[in-house]
Amino acid sequence: MTGWLPREAADIFGAGATAEEAYDLLTVDVPPESWEAALTTARDELGCTFFDWLSAVDEPGTGFRVCAHVVALGGGSEGGGVRRLLLRTTVGYDDPALPTATGVHPGAAWHERETHEMFGVAFTGHPGLAPLLLPEEFEGHPLRKDFVLAARVAKAWPGAKEPGESHDGGPKRRQMQPPGVPDPNEWGPLKGQLPPAPARPARAARGAAAPGERPARRARSVTEGSASQGQDAPWQRPAPEKPAPQEPPAGTPAAPPAPEAPAPKDPSPGAPAPKDPAPQEPPAPEPPAAEPAPAPEAPAPKEPPAEGGDPA
Question: Are the C-beta atoms of residues 89 and 18 closer than 8 Å to each other?
Fold first, then answer.
């Protein structure tokens, strides 16, 4: 099962029906002969009673893809939130026709009139496919990819001319035409008057360069590296030899030799590397020491009085 469908799409909408879901939108493709029956099934069985819109898309090489967007308010028969369903079918360019959907959703009448006017898709059984938006004298269906935009052919579009180029002359190079704009040499006021676009000559294989000409560029493989890694690179060439110093002429006093600096002593193995002595600051002057005070003298001991005698 796909999305919120109760069964497989082919079991609900008939043979040939396929379904897919993306961004909370369930899309079901049905054959053209099952178009009206699919709308009825979506309304009665899936609860899609709200008709939103109907339109078409011109798919080059495929045909016109007609789409109808219907909604189940309240989730249909199973309850829940809003569920959206996009029914699609494809009709060919030869006879684009479908049965009308007005019998299932009367609000589709306005949308089918617009689709018929813009794409040329006929809806059989419609009460009246009268023009809706375009004037009665308008010819063609403007939303088809093969509809000729006469205004684009009569006047050059911005970007079709080079700056400073005259509007009367043709463009310097043939550009790719957008949908609806034919070749001005095949349709329009300049039909058959413009020269055909010159064919681009085929590029011949390069041969060996003649003497005095720039050599052909040689492709290098991954193993060979780039041109800057070859032997011809300036930094790959051997350095030029330095000229030998010239001897001074005879009679020129020789310059005194420069004094040799004393060689540093090799430290003993295992000894730590000598450190640079840090600059020593002069010691701060010490305050003069105070003279110690003399210790107090102890009193002399008194002699005990003699026995039988007078006290002293």
Answer: no
Question: Exposed (0-12), middle (13-18) or buried (19+): which is 151, by Cβ within 10 Å?
Answer: exposed
Helix, strand and coil percent figures for the chain, each rounded to 5:
15, 15, 70
Contacts of 226 (CB under 8 A, 6+ apart): 220
3-34 pLDDT tens trace = 999 999 999 999 999 999 999 999 999 999 99
Q: Letter for the amino acid at 29?
A: D
**DSSP per residue, 103-161:** TT-TTHHHHHHHHHHHH--EEET-S----SSS-TT--S-TTSTT---HHHHHSPPTTSS
Q: What's the predicted TM-score (pTM) here?
A: 0.54
| Adjacency order of strands within the sheet including 83-91 | 18-22, 25-29, 83-91, 63-72, 50-59
User: Domain segments of the chain: what residues?
Assistant: 9-124, 148-185
How many distinct helices (H) and strands (E) make up the chain?
4, 7
Into which CATH architecture does domain 9-124 fall? 2-Layer Sandwich (3.30)
Locus of tokens 């079918």: 89
Structure tokens at 199: 């064919």
Tokens of 157: 């579009």
**Cα gap 71→49, rounded to integer Å:** 7
CB neighbour list of residue 90: distance below 8 Å, 6 or more residues apart: 29, 32, 59, 62, 63, 64, 65, 66
Distance CA 43, CA 48 (A): 4
